[in-house]
Amino acid sequence: MTELKFVFGDPDICSGCMVCVNVCSMFYSKVIGPTRSRVRVVRLEPALDFALFCRNCEDAPCIEACPEGALSRTSKGIVIVNNKKCNGTGACVEACPYNAIHIHPDTGKAIKCIQCGQCIDRCPADAIFMTTTAELAERDKDGRMMALHEKHKKELYPKEAKN
Amino acid sequence: MFGVGGEILWVDMTKGKIEKVPIDEELVNKYLLGAGYLSKILYDMIPAGTDPLGKKNILGIATGLLTGSMFPQASRHVVAALSPLTDVWGESHAAGFFGAELKFAGYDAIMFTGASSDPLYLNIEDSKVELLDASHLWGKDVFETDDILRKDHDRQFRTLSIGQAGENLVRFSAIMNDRDRASARSGLGAVMGSKKIKAVSVKGTGKLEVADPKNYLKQMDIFYERMMANPFTPGRVKYGTTSLVEMMQHIGRLPSYNMKQGVFDGYEKISGEAINEKYLVKARADFSCLQRCGRYTAVRKGPYAFEGGSPEFETQSSMGSRCGNDNLESILFGHHLANQYGMDTISLGGTISWAMEAWDEGLLTAEDTGGIDLSWGNAETIIKLTKMIALREGFGDVLADGSAAAAERIGRGTEKFVMTVKKQEIAGQEPRAQKSMGLAAVTAARGADHLYAFPVLDEAGFDKEIKERFGEQYLPEMADRLNPKYKGIMVKECEDFMVMVESVGLCKYGTQIPPEFYYDDIALTLKIHNGLNFTGNQLQEIGERIVNLNRLFNARFGVTRKDDCLPDRLTKEKAPLGPSAGEVVELDQMLTEYYDVRGWDQETGLPLKETLERLGLDYE
């Protein structure tokens, strides 16, 4: 199961421009708006910019959590939302440890990164890339990127504000 | 209209009332948004005799039509009011994320009228807009204010605020946003301070619907490819504007020792290369920005240790060469302090360098300065004065009103060392080495300014663009930075274009330097983003209309041709050293050509009746 792909960003390289966010909301929702995007960008001092995507967890707690069974993994290993089944309960949002799945304000359905790569092609800083757990370990040999994500997880993955 | 927030917030600080008004589409057709829209509103509402720091001044904060769009570098907002530094039109711009966030919350602009007796801040969360008590924020610096507001509300809020300098009505105080972005020129932080507005915090969860969603991304891909392929982009990423120090030294355009000369022996020590070598942490971008000229640097130890936003060329020259200071760590730290207190580094360095020259000439003594040594290059003094000016302590209180006011107060012949136009300090372009910059500094509506026109086409071999934008008949003279010929025509064209760019919320990097995007690209984007149908020619005419309206605003406050002047040093004393030695600014010649092509009266320097009629300003 180590072949599961996900998009990851280098917080030391990312400039924080939000082009990925805009590309995503335009590509899928035909609007510009971070709340309609499947990627978030969080700027932290000192000098860190995190582009945050679905991490495609092996155990995918979002799939388990959905009472409607709207989330499933495709044969290519991508976790997708079945809009016909999704009722926008938000159980997946609660379950996601990476705050990487959200309810789209217009459709009321869950949205998440499906590793399409549209943003990667357009990142002006080449800061985001498609990877797997094994590949990332290879690329991030000294553990710098993972350590930064780990160190700041409280700010990066806050629980959604209750409304 | 597509692609905008849709409403303007009118905030009456006296009564504490907030009103939401839809944007006026008729005004948009004549003035776009951003700088143009504010020009019209403030022209209509600020009468002659208004006190810039009184209740009747109005402070506008506006986004452009394309702010928050996907066009490269569409991050910008503009602030405007009657300036307390120049007593004429005051305007300043910044990048960041504040503008886009305001749009996502559903607003295109905020207009502050009146003044509160107690400090307040405006908090915006989509449709919820409220004035809240800011007594706990008053006295805090810009970074502390940002920290507190985002802790009290939510990390994802964007903030705009003043530091102690704005509170203390320092006449070149800035309005800061997103921590280290500055709307610095014109002293509008003091207007915010006079109204007791400490900050604006905003969170928007909305969206911008675009006019042509089907073709939007396809078109943006074309713009992205052009921007990324532009030969300037890699250098911009690597150095931002910091490497201009080296470039300007090589053409003798690096203001040094209060503009006595355009070359500086210590230039290598304060260069872009020097910053990259030891201090650069990373390049940072603002919303939708592909060029990421923003810098983040750290000085790890010593008296100037800090970590944060980093200077661009203007601060390297103003707090560096202009003060004869080659201590790079002090420049980086001084810039950080200026951001923290919220001050314009150009006027700050310009004012300190005026004092240093007066000291050097023996006209200012320890008695005036309270014992502070103002020798050229005294880095410790520059840092000390930066704090004292922000807090209006001791001699800092004299300097806090800018060099023109300080010289008037001190007298003794120090007036001739004041390097200002309309009381605003001239920016980092020694104009004897680039004549167009001298003209631009005097014609800019906000007083000495390089950005109102930003005439850079004669700076670095843009012959091809000059040919495209003006015509072959203007070559080679227009491209020659030392030749005054055709500079009136060039500055006029550049002003029209640049005020239009400020009205759509784009950056001058990408439009003017490098000159990658021009009128037709912006017209196309206004169509697919906003659904507005303008031709390139119509956009040019709007730019021209805005410039003329700014001139009418200034005429109301007494400006005529006699105010369009440079310090004698630049027009009468030959540049003493370097590659441009022997040069002066032939201002009169250029100004006459400029008025001519503008359709302004040669005697008064004011728009002729037929010019106003042609632009539909005759009823203004």
Q: What's a quick, concise take on this entry?
A:
The complex is a heterodimer of chains A (163) and B (620). Chain A has 163 residues and is of the alpha+beta class.
Quickly list its features.
heterodimer, A: alpha+beta, Alpha-Beta Plaits, two-stranded antiparallel ribbon, 28% helix, globular, B: alpha+beta, Aldehyde Ferredoxin Oxidoreductase,  A, domain 1, Aldehyde Ferredoxin Oxidoreductase Protein, subunit A, domain 2, Aldehyde Ferredoxin Oxidoreductase Protein, subunit A, domain 3, 3 domains, six-stranded mixed β-sheet
Protein architecture, described:
The complex is a heterodimer of chains A (163) and B (620). Chain A has helices spanning 19-29, 61-65, 91-95, 118-122, 133-139, 144-151, 153-156; strands at 5-9, 31-32, 40-44, 48-52, 71-73, 79-81, 101-103, 110-112, 128-132. With 163 residues, chain A is α+β, with helices and mostly antiparallel strands. Chain A has a single domain (5-156), classed as Alpha-Beta Plaits, CATH 3.30.70. In chain A, the strands form 4 sheets. In chain A, strands 1-9 form a two-stranded antiparallel sheet. The longest helix of chain A is centred in the first third of the chain and has 11 residues, at 19-29. Chain A starts with a strand and ends in a 7-residue tail after the last helix. Chain B has 620 residues and is α+β, with helices and mostly antiparallel strands. Chain B folds into 3 domains: 7-203, Aldehyde ferredoxin oxidoreductase, N-terminal domain (Aldehyde Ferredoxin Oxidoreductase,  A, domain 1, 4-Layer Sandwich), CATH 3.60.9.10; 231-418, Orthogonal Bundle (Aldehyde Ferredoxin Oxidoreductase Protein, subunit A, domain 2); 430-614, Aldehyde Ferredoxin Oxidoreductase Protein, subunit A, domain 3, CATH 1.10.599.10. At the A-B interface, helix 1 and strand 2 of A face strand 13, helix 7, strand 14 and strand 15 of B.
Overall radius of gyration of chain B: 22 Å
Helices of chain B, by number, come to 25
Number of helical segments with 4 or more residues of chain A: 7
Q: From the helix content, strand content and strand pairing of chain A, which structural class follows?
A: alpha+beta
- Characterize the largest beta sheet of chain B: strand count, sense, and whether it forms a barrel: 6 strands, mixed
Assign the structural class of chain B, choosing from mainly alpha, mainly beta, alpha/beta, alpha+beta, or little secondary structure: alpha+beta
* Overall pLDDT metric of chain B: 97
The count of DSSP E runs of length 2 or more, i.e. the number of strands of chain B, is: 18
Most extensive interface, chain pair and sizes: A-B, 33 and 39 residues
- What is the CATH class designation of the largest domain in chain B? Alpha Beta
Question: Alpha-carbon distance between the termini of chain B?
Answer: 26 Å
Q: Can you tell me the number of structural domains of chain A?
A: 1
Computed over alpha carbons, the radius of gyration of chain A is 15 Å
Q: How would you describe the shape of chain B?
A: globular
> Order of strands across the biggest sheet of chain B?
2-1-6-3-4-5
**Share of helix of chain A, binned:** 25-40%
- Poorly predicted ranges of chain B (pLDDT <50, ≥5 residues)? none
